[in-house]
């Protein structure tokens, strides 16, 4: 396969995303005013609760089988390694650049969470269809299955790990705003209390002094004796809050849809009910598939709409964007080659060039588009996320193509 043929295959889905994003930017601009901030927020809720779960459920139930899940067991480990390495590198650049606290989670998420779904869904089968491909056109069904499994497992990591980061960022951001309001109210209250206290001191300073002495004598032993109890209560509250957060993330609509998709795809009699031209419940699968097809266009339109404000209001620095690009397109792909080569030598993955290629390319994709949905849901970092996506996806048109060529050269 020639370089230019591969370039066209690999860059086509990214160019499509950029074109749809530009349309979203126009719809949200003053020339159209159709995709306003409230509309984008409501659309994101629909994407989160309906479109994304439908896409995961339909693709998994249709393309994944129990045998393939067993033979591709290393993919969850591989994706976990990408998130682990990306998180560590993201934490390093956060310590280097010291962004605002509420943007730390966004930077770590964009470094660790890659686009494991729609991008691979288009690129991998497209490469198999190309004449001269090292994988062959007969591997197209396996390519769709690998892309679906990658999207499902990647979605599980994204909607647990990355969603947790964005939820914490939202708590920091909105909590700091509430703290500011609370500080102002406290200052006003202290001012009022001080005025009343001054009046009371003028009326009866000796009585006031006696009351303060008695209060101090009473408060000191209470604080010292209850200190341990307060710490225990705080620890229990934090533990309950952490468990509650984990439970909420595990029962999020995309995660639940992935689990159901795995069950339907791995159970032959369930799969025969929904999948196939003669399936009695085929209309259900067609309806879910139809809903899932709206996921990528809606997410991309929202990102483009946020970009109109992001270019003006974003506080992210050029050096931070460059660091994210270097992590995603320079450091992580090198780690990907090393991880897959080591796994093959240790006998953890079978000899399958297409499978090896998918494992490698998972390290070299741009940030996951679901991060944009999370920023909108959590109402934090939307502008900065749009700017990061703009530059990372522009660079991806060349970076993904170059690394695809390198990966196939290594595997051929």
From TrEMBL:
UniProt subcellular location: Endoplasmic reticulum membrane
Keyword DNA-binding: no
Main localization (coarse): endoplasmic reticulum
Protein name per Swiss-Prot or TrEMBL: Protein PIN-LIKES 7-like
Membrane spanning stretches: 6-26, 46-64, 70-94, 106-127, 139-159, 321-342, 354-375, 387-411
Organism: Canna indica
Taxonomic superkingdom: Eukaryota
Recorded topology in the membrane: Multi-pass membrane protein
Keywords noted in UniProt: Auxin signaling pathway, Membrane, Transmembrane, Transmembrane helix, Transport
Function: Involved in cellular auxin homeostasis by regulating auxin metabolism. Regulates intracellular auxin accumulation at the endoplasmic reticulum and thus auxin availability for nuclear auxin signaling.
Stated family: Belongs to the auxin efflux carrier (TC 2.A.69.2) family.
GO BP term, pick one: auxin-activated signaling pathway
Entry GO CC: endoplasmic reticulum membrane
